[in-house]
Design a protein that fits this description.
Radius of gyration of chain B: 14 Å
Structural class of chain A: mainly beta
Largest sheet of chain A: 7 strands, mixed
Number of helices of chain A: 0
Order of helices and strands of chain A: EEEEEEEEEEE
Radius of gyration of chain A: 13 Å
Oligomer: heterodimer
Number of helices of chain B: 0
Shape of chain B: globular
Helix content of chain A: under 10%
Distance between the termini of chain B: 41 Å
Largest sheet of chain B: 6 strands, mixed
Distance between the termini of chain A: 35 Å
């Protein structure tokens, strides 16, 4: 089955702790994205990557970091600098980044602060 | 710059009646437009997309949307609602004119409630 997997489904963070959210895709897509979703809001872009070993900041990158060492993997680290990390995090991928490219989404990870 | 406005935060319909979810967009260029659906605690699933071909776009699960350039609208419709349609729906515009680093701008969503 082709698709995008995210793990874990739920993640708990303690104060001052960094946590990493996993995102893997087997669609052979070049581009990958991380979004944050808060209640009553649309999705906001955190980081995106158009190709391996390259990534760009999105609209709300502060307090987050990413890496793209492999085409199929794009992990997101929520650092202790992110003061309000409680949210639903969605990973997506697309074949490229041209206009009209469809993004395909994973099932999401819900991050909660203890 | 591009923007998208979903005109209703909540829509409630009875099962078997028509569904209308309204979306207006603003774009400096010929946009691509998408509708996604999200069930609780799930990722987003593409319902349909418009990319300058036919203005009436048919999607999955009986949904369709019509691109109206003169009205800058892309409303989502379905003739007969089913209980399984209860979800959050997002209208998305893409024209790479500055809206978001990846060229996509998401609406804030419309919560569709289906009454039995």
């Amino acid at each position: 089955d082709g698709g995008i997997t995210q793990s874990p489904k739920y993640l708990f963070r303690k104060e001052g702790q960094n946590v990493t959210l996993s995102c893997e895709q087997n669609l052979n897509h070049d581009a990958m994205y991380w979004y944050r979703q808060d209640p009553g809001q649309g999705l906001r872009l955190i980081y995106y990557s158009q190709i391996v070993n390259d990534f760009q900041k999105g609209d709300i990158a502060e307090g987050y970091s990413v890496s793209r060492e492999k085409k199929e993997s794009f992990p997101l680290t929520v650092t202790s600098a992110q003061k309000n990390p409680t949210a639903f995090y969605l990973c997506a991928s697309s074949p490229g980044t041209g206009r009209g490219e469809t993004q395909y989404f994973g099932p999401g990870t819900r991050l909660l602060v203890l | 710059a591009q923007s998208v406005t979903q005109l209703d935060s909540h829509v409630s319909v009875s099962e078997g009646t028509p569904v209308l979810l309204r979306c207006n967009y603003s774009s400096s260029y010929s946009p691509s437009l998408f509708w996604y659906v999200q069930h609780p605690n799930k990722g987003l699933q593409l319902l349909l997309k418009y990319t300058s071909a036919a203005t009436l776009v048919k999607g999955i699960n009986g949904f369709e949307a019509e691109f109206k350039k003169s009205e800058t609208s892309f409303h989502l419709t379905k003739p007969s609602a089913h209980m399984s349609d209860a979800a959050e729906y997002f209208c998305v515009v893409s024209d790479f004119s500055g809206g978001g680093a990846d060229g996509l701008t998401f609406g804030k969503g419309t919560h569709l409630i289906i009454q039995p």
